[in-house]
Known about the structure:
- By secondary structure, this protein is of the alpha+beta class.
- The strands form 10 sheets. A 6-stranded mixed beta sheet has the order 21-22-14-19-18-31. A 5-stranded mixed beta sheet has the order 5-8-2-1-11, with helices on one face.
Amino acid sequence: ATAKVDNTPDDKTTTAKSSPLFTRYDRNAYDNAAGNHFNSTIADDEKLTYGNLDKDAIIKRRQRKTNNDNSSSQQHVDDDSNNKCTTYLAPSSIPNSGLGMYTTIPYAKSDTFLLPEIGIMLQDKDAHYPQGSDKLLAQYPWGPGILTGGHREVTTGAVMVPGLGMLANSHLGLANFRHSDTWRMQIDEDGTDSLSLEGLQSSTTLKDVGRGSSSYHSRVLFHADKNIQRGEELFVNYGDEWFTARESWIGVIPSAKNYEEADRLIAELFSEDDGGHDVVDPQAYEVLLKDAAEKDKRLRAAFPDNVEDVPIAKEMGTARFSARSSIQSVEWIEENGVCIDNLVSGASTIAQAGRGAFATRTINKGAVITTTPLITLEREQLQLWEEVDGTDVGVQNKIKKEDKVLEMVGHQLLLNYCYGHVNSSLILFPYSPTVNFINHGSKEKANAEIVWSSYPYHKGEWLNLSLEEMKELQKTGLMFDIVATKDIGLGEEVLLYYGKDWEDSWNEHIEDWTTAENEQDGMMHKNVTDTLGVHLNQRSNSDSIILTVEEQKIQPYPPYLETVCRFKPPAEKCQDENNDYCTIRWSLSMNEMHDNLCDVISRSSIDGNDWYFARMNITNSTSNETTRYHVEFLPRYAIRLINRKYTKDQYSRGVFREVIGLPEGLFPDHWIDLKEEDDKYIYQD
């Protein structure tokens, strides 16, 4: 599997909905706020919980039992005695595509994939590391629209989504899962930034040493796009552009429409012989292939090369014919694959950890919990730079590039999810489902460890390659096994020991952390997203009204918020006689990409409903022309407050960043190339 492009449809939207919220770093707050998830009066010995979900919720969320391949019914059990694996990593049916994902249970159309995943935003990666387009990491990110509000977080965002988002391959004619439309999500339902309990009077965010150290997009969901059979390989849609941009090295790949047209043309080609059998004239098929090649090379690629295969392609469909082994028996999957659904995410029991990974079934000591492929990348790919004044190049973390002096101001959040050695410029990112939710535990509390995988598809010989050879690789091959070091029960949080270097770095971060009280020492973080102990974005969006521009002069919103209005401009050019603004009545849009920055001018109440009048400037992406609109009769649900770019915790200065350490002796010595502190200033040639 490789890179993805955003495929968010144009007819979806999101609706604000208020609810009691809480800080993600306060365990008591998690428990108190989770009253709608489990009964706090249950005796402790009856509470088998992960995060804020009880035992039944674990099982209902993870275990689906069906009577036959065509049934979409789900039966839930009270223990995991028959809790068999449902999701496997196994050889893909697409030639030269390595490993893929398979299901041993059927999904009905619109069913949610069982494992919610994390979304890790890369901020302006091409600006900070412009030479990265030919690196392996560039093949994997989705567009920012896969995250709720993601396209407005930074100027140019790209998102890493492990699990289905990276491990599943793409077949444009057989894609059977798609990421959930963000319009289905409540605001921040795919994770939270800075939330707090109702009634809390003091800030919890600025004083929180863990703020910005984990992704708040922790519930990226995928839904079945069609009925999926037991034993079927899981495919997502990278988008046509991803394939056409890479034709020079992956070849010509048909689109879904190409396969559909090929099916139609093949069906028209058949005729009955004297015995009443459907047959194909070989000469007619040659003409068909020639015509298809002249019309569209991608259409030609959808047809079988040999006329003998045409009857099979007609019966199966050309898309399925191109990946005939994409539906396997459960026995084949179990024999050739490894289970990758032993973990599911939930609110961690560890302070400052955000969400964690919890066992979906009993795991015995010594058993493999999960297996994960790894992306190899270089530390410098994750460095963040800013232009500064000064000439002290080469001192601390400043370098000169062209006519600019650049200062390294931090790292991408992705660094916190990578593994490696503190003194190596090579780091590893795992991307099997849920592995990036596994938190740090002390040596005494850790119940799992990392080893090189015993799965036959792990390329152990790569461990002998030089550091330079590893950095030049354009494919994946290394794999980890995460192995239980203790017996782990259903619902128990799985913890890894991140290593002494990571612990030292975390403790140093705690000591250096600066709160709002000592802002004067110059260490204060760039953005302030919480001043009253209530996440004002959430609080304001739950308010019954939106303040007008004039009202905000008296009662201003916080400076880190801005107003967006959901409005799709008409296709035709505005005919309004007013040359300053085009006045138009609001119409419904269900696409988050139609959220436009706006000023609310007035509000009126008609029959108990509030209607808004707003102005906005919208630039046409094709013509680059900007039209100024006055939009009438906007309903309240079409307006919401969002964070301005770079004002979420992840983008703050001074937040914790450190690579996760590997067990002693696991990382090859010949990949260790850095001295202490080298990472601060040796890059950016």
